[in-house]
Amino acid sequence: MNVAFPSTIIRHFVNYTQKEIFTTEKYLYLKALRGIAIIVSTKGTDKNADKAIRGTLRENGKLIISLTNKDLITMIERKATDNNLPAEFLSEKLDNMLVDLEK
Questions:
Q1: Number of structural domains, the chain?
Q2: What highest taxon heads this organism's lineage (predicted)?
Q3: Which member of 20, 52, 82, 94 has the lowest number of beta carbons within 10 Å of its beta carbon?
């Protein structure tokens, strides 16, 4: 089974508002296998940024996952105590996002 992975990882750590989400979305390009971004911010995203993240997924098929410091700590703790993969935590976040996605 051949799996293609993106060759570019963009790192940018700020507290995200709607403006920064739209800027991040411009870096994503589906044909170049850059359709996913994981953003990490201390305080997380604000309400408008969350709406922009859902809109980007719904309208353009580009996935932006927002993680906070607390999310990173949770992934580390789950890995250490439950031998639970961090990917499972990300999968849960994605599932919750898809359930809440407006039509």
A1: 1
A2: Bacteria
A3: 82
